[in-house]
Design goal:
The complex is a heterodimer of chains A (132) and B (59).
Chain A: H1 2-26, H2 35-60, H3 69-94, H4 103-125
Chain B: H1 2-34, H2 43-46, H3 48-53
Classes of the chains: A mainly alpha (132), B mainly alpha (59).
C-alpha cells in the first residue's frame, strides 16, 4: 500500500513541476499566480493526482489487461484524467461562459497524464538499491 | 487455518485503508480540478493556474 502512495506522490510532484517548466515554453496557460504559489499548488495538485494513480495501481496491478508496468500506469493515469475532463466537459455544457474549454490546454493536460503514468511506471519498475 | 484467516483479515484491512485514502485523495482532486470554492474556501484561486495547465476548463 505504501509503495503506491509514496511513488505516486513522488511522480505527481515531479510531473507538476514538469508542467510548470513545459508551460513556460508552450505558453498554453497564462499564469496569474506567482512562482512560489504555483510551485506549491502544482506540487499539491500533481501529488494528489499521483497518489490516486499509485493507489489504483496497487489495487488494479494484477487485474488490468496489459502485461507491461508502463502501459498499466499510463492507462490508469490517462483514464482518471479523462474522467475528470469529462466532468469538466459537463460543466462547460452547463455554463459555457464560465467553464470555457481550450483545446491546447486540454492537449497539454493529456500530455501531463501520459508523463505522470510514464514517470510512475519507471519508478515502479526500479529495484531498490542493494537488491539482486 | 487460523493463520489464513489472520492474513485475509490483514489484507482486507489494508485494502480498506487504501480505499479510504483513495476516496479522500479523489475528493480533494475533484475539489481542485473544478475549483469548488463552496467546499474549500480559496480552492478556486489557489489552483487556478494548475487547472488551466492540466486542461480542466475554467473561467
Amino acid at each position: 500500500m505504501g509503495k503506491g502512495i509514496l511513488l505516486g506522490a513522488l511522480a505527481g510532484v515531479a510531473c507538476g513541476w514538469l508542467v510548470i517548466a513545459f508551460n513556460m515554453f508552450s505558453g498554453v496557460a497564462e499564469f496569474e499566480n506567482g512562482f512560489i504559489s504555483n510551485a506549491l499548488a502544482f506540487s499539491t495538485g500533481g501529488g494528489l493526482f499521483g497518489v490516486i494513480v499509485g493507489g489504483l495501481m496497487t489495487l488494479l496491478e494484477g487485474r488490468l489487461p496489459f502485461s507491461g508496468t508502463l502501459s498499466k500506469t499510463v492507462s490508469i493515469s490517462v483514464g482518471i484524467w479523462l474522467i475528470l475532463r469529462l466532468g469538466g466537459t459537463l460543466l462547460s455544457m452547463n455554463d459555457p461562459q464560465r467553464f470555457h474549454p481550450d483545446f491546447a490546454q486540454t492537449l497539454q493536460g493529456l500530455l501531463f497524464a501520459v508523463a505522470l503514468g510514464l514517470i510512475l511506471g519507471v519508478l515502479w519498475n526500479r529495484k531498490p538499491e542493494g537488491s539482486v | 487455518m487460523k493463520n489464513a484467516i489472520l492474513i485475509r483479515q490483514a489484507v482486507s484491512q489494508n485494502t480498506l485503508r487504501l480505499a479510504l485514502a483513495l476516496a479522500g485523495a479523489g475528493f480533494a482532486m475533484v475539489v481542485i480540478a473544478y475549483g469548488m470554492d463552496s467546499v474549500v474556501k480559496g480552492a478556486h484561486d489557489v489552483f487556478h493556474d494548475f487547472r488551466h495547465a492540466v486542461g480542466f476548463p475554467c473561467h
